[in-house]
Design goal:
The protein is mainly alpha-helical and about 140 residues long. The protein has a single domain, classed as Orthogonal Bundle (Helix Hairpins). Helix 2 packs antiparallel against helix 3 and helix 3 runs antiparallel to helix 4. The radius of gyration is 20 Å and the shape is extended. It starts with 10 loop residues before the first helix and ends with a helix.
Amino acid sequence: MQAPAGKKFSLRERTRSFRFAITGIATVIRTQHNFRIHLIAFILVIASALFFGISPAEWCIVLLASALVLCLEIINTAIEFLVDIISPQYQEKAGMIKDLSAAAVLVAAIIAAFVGIIIFGKYIIVLFSTSSAIR
């Protein structure tokens, strides 16, 4: 694929872009309590997946569901920051935009929780049925 006319590929510019993205991740971690909660949940999900030895297909589903929640939380934060700049005083429509953005995160988180129940449920049932059989 050719670079646009007048723009040559620059490793320095790509590195700079990654630094901006990392700064964005650091900003959302530092400023957003809900993102930190989702990040902790993600770490627990990864630990559970490793513990239970879930299948490659299950890994893909878990990672996609988790990525959706984390990415939507980042987008929600960007929208909230943008609305605060555009509309510093309260406006009903600005509030609705923030509510809709937050709702997208909530819907994704609920669906991700159901995905987790479906995938990890069978492993948890086996774990508890095995441990009660040992007694």
